[in-house]
Design goal:
Helix content: 25-40%
Strand order of the largest sheet: 2-3-1-5
Number of helices: 3
Structural class: alpha+beta
Shape: globular
Distance between the termini: 22 Å
Number of strands: 7
Strand content: 35-45%
Radius of gyration: 13 Å
């Protein structure tokens, strides 16, 4: 395994209407994110650090959003987690 693949974090969601806007928000806030779509799952990989911002999701869905709602459609993730009311961050090493 090369160093870049080893340092990737990922998060995977069920594919449904609720997660579509979440994935769009992640792509907007993480320009290097790689989105891999499967029939029932969307996996998002990112080198080193991936940020999910409440504000970006709210702009896309048009309502208040609690980042704990991510857990309703979450399948798996890889990386250390740093959560606040405004951000959900996955990272390896420094953040």
């Amino acid at each position: 395994m090369n160093a870049i693949a080893k340092d990737k974090v990922f998060i995977a969601f069920q594919t449904n209407d609720e997660t579509r806007s979440i994935v769009e928000a992640i792509e907007a806030d993480n320009q290097e994110a790689i989105v891999i779509r499967y029939p029932a799952m969307v996996k998002i990989e990112m080198p080193g650090r991936l940020v999910i911002r409440r504000e970006t999701i709210e702009e896309l869905i048009g309502r208040a959003y609690d980042l704990r709602e991510l857990n309703l459609n979450l399948i798996s993730l890889s990386g250390n987690i740093d959560e606040s009311d405004d951000e959900f961050v996955l990272y390896w090493n420094q953040h």
